[in-house]
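Lay summary. Proteins are chains of building blocks that fold into shapes, and those shapes determine what they do. In this project we predict the shape from the chain. Here is one chain we studied, written as its sequence of building blocks.
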Amino acid sequence: MLGLLAACGSDQTSGSKSGEKSIVVGAAMPVFDDKWLSYLYDGIKEYDSEHDNVKVKMVDAKNDAGKQFSQVETFIVQQVDVILINPVETDAVGPMVDAANEADIPVVIVNRMPDEEVMKKIYAYVGSESIEAGTIQMEKVVELLGGKGNVAILNGTLGQESVVNRTKGNKDVLKKTQT
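And here is the predicted shape, written in a compact code that computers can read:
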């Protein structure tokens, strides 16, 4: 994923050993104490540590969309080369993208897909299509259960795009198997 960010880099060179162009990534994350997201954070940190020409500034919004917007504004003032956003709330990411676009800073959205209008304004989206992911999940559950049995759906943070749409994909499969 961060390799994709290199395409967004600046034309400035920094003190990297190889004289390569340097890229500063502002990474606005929703919350640091989420187990699944910790794998994403670890991967970003590992990439950063292995590449002298990449500097990642990662911040924790503590699941507060207003705080995340403020953090994105700080990245804009700092003139980072690219902003990576894993939105606290997909409905709140539009103004963040607009502000970055006004500053000519590319935005990459990760994991939580925003609406179609926001998708048109970003450099890239890295993540799954949530309805399809939910469909694949439940098709496998149905297969493993032989089409019989009871199923409980466990949700993450209510209201998140991925939770809503993966659950929709799950339920669509269940409807088909009940007929």
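What the prediction tells us: Helices lie at 2-6, 35-50, 65-77, 93-102, 116-119, 130-144, 161-177.
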